[in-house]
Structures are given as C-alpha cells and as structure tokens.
Amino acid sequence: MASSGVLKLASLMLVVCMVVSATLQARAAVTCGDVVRTLTPCISYVQYGGPLPDNCCNGVKTLYGEAQTSADRQNVCKCIKSAVNGFSYSNFNLGLAAGLPGKCGLHLPYTISPSTDCNKVQ
C-alpha cells in the first residue's frame, strides 16, 4: 500500500514538473511588463546619474538573458522607446541610458536611443 502511495505521489510530481516546464517554455516572448519591471531600478540613475545601482545591472542582465530571439530583442527595444515616449530628456539622460549595457558588462548590437529603428534590431 505504501509503495502505491509513493508511486502516485511521484506521478503527480512528474505531471507538475511537466506542466511547469511547458509553461516556462511557452513564455518565449518578453513583454513590456517584463521590460519595465527589470529596468525600473535604473530610472534614478538615468534621470540623475551618480552611482549605478547593482539591482539596475541585475535587471539589465536579466533582460539581456531573457531576450533570446530577434523578435524578443525588437520587442524590448520597442517597449523601451514606448516607455520614454512623452517624457522630456536631455543628451545627459540619453548618454546615461545608452551607456547602461557597457557599464553592466554587456555589448548590445544596437544603441539605446530614440532614433534606433527597432525593426532592424537582430
């Protein structure tokens, strides 16, 4: 009887793992909510400069790791551009934003800029 219960529990755990795995694999696209959530710690740095918060680089690196396809990277680009649309910014702010990947030890194949054509991002 005990082995029957263990087998049922093991079967249930296997099904749960399969469902969780399928859910994670199905979530291939990076959403604008993901972009905003991961880059929120960078806002004060881009606005005012100063020391770069560790959680900002953690967010940048997380987003970089999640954007595995060209479509994901294009979506991230479009989300960033959409998020800053309507806000006033200076060349100072643009420079800080464009420099974020490098300061976090990453190299992007495009520049973070309002003039970036997100459809050309690979």
From TrEMBL:
Keywords annotated in UniProt: Lipid-binding, Signal, Transport
**Would the keyword Signal turn up in this protein's UniProt record?**
yes
Q: Could you tell me which residue ranges the Bifunctional inhibitor/plant lipid transfer protein/seed storage helical domain spans?
A: 32-118
Extract the Pfam families matched here: Tryp_alpha_amyl
One MF term from GO for this chain? lipid binding
- The reply to whether Iron-sulfur figures as a keyword in the UniProt entry is no
GO BP, one example?
A: lipid transport
Q: Which Gene3D superfamilies match?
A: Plant lipid-transfer and hydrophobic proteins
Q: Which residues form the signal peptide?
A: 1-28
Q: Which family does it belong to?
A: Belongs to the plant LTP family.
**What function does this protein fulfil?**
Plant non-specific lipid-transfer proteins transfer phospholipids as well as galactolipids across membranes. May play a role in wax or cutin deposition in the cell walls of expanding epidermal cells and certain secretory tissues.
This chain belongs to which protein, by name? Non-specific lipid-transfer protein
